[in-house]
Design a protein that fits this description.
single chain, two-stranded antiparallel sheet, 6 helices, 24% strand, binds zinc ion, alpha+beta
Length: 232
Amino acid sequence: MFRYFGEGQKGDMTFTGGNKAIRDHVADGEDLLLFQKQDRTGLLRFLGEFVCENTTREPAPDRLGKMRSAIVFHLVPVEAIAEAEAAEPYANQAEGGLDLAALRRAAVAAANTGDEEPAEGARRRIYQRSQAVRRYVLARAAGVCECCGEAAPFLRLNGQPYLEPHHIRRVSDGGPDDPRYVAGICPTCHRRIHHGVDGQAVNKRLGEIIRQKEPVQKIGSHGARRLERELV
Ligand SMILES: [Zn+2]
Ligand SMILES: [Zn+2]
């Protein structure tokens, strides 16, 4: 968990500009990448991809040394969310009656991080959004691997075809993401993408396939973008 101070030279910090972009990055379909400047070399070291779990305010001096209300972002690594998901996979399958469009709406539903929301609720919401994206993607796949086009190799205990959600743009397969960048694929294709000699090429082709399947309109205000932030 990282604490990251918001921007703003003077006076109370507000949720505008860069501060708003960080708070809303999940809803806006933006990845949050953190870098840390190395003391000796001044070079930036990549710390990884994070999710803004919640924000709090605390008093801190501004540039002129005057106390003001500063925004603190609480950032968790995407891997931590992936682990929480793995521990509780497909826990809630009660949405049987929902159609694909309804699942998609749930998946892209705004995941705005509320101002000063308790971490508990925020983490729950991030988790729920991740689950909604998975459910939608697996429904979109409809039992057929979105990569190779073969039927899922077996059924789960609950009778659903076994496919795995794969994040096309990410190293880690967890966390909330835009449904345009998550695919439901068979375990063989999944291993091939992550470990195969032609994994990158297969992943690229998969990205094209999903682009064809997904509605064209943009999700969130910007579509997929990356927010890069430097820790100080
Ligand atoms: Zn496959
Ligand atoms: Zn994957």
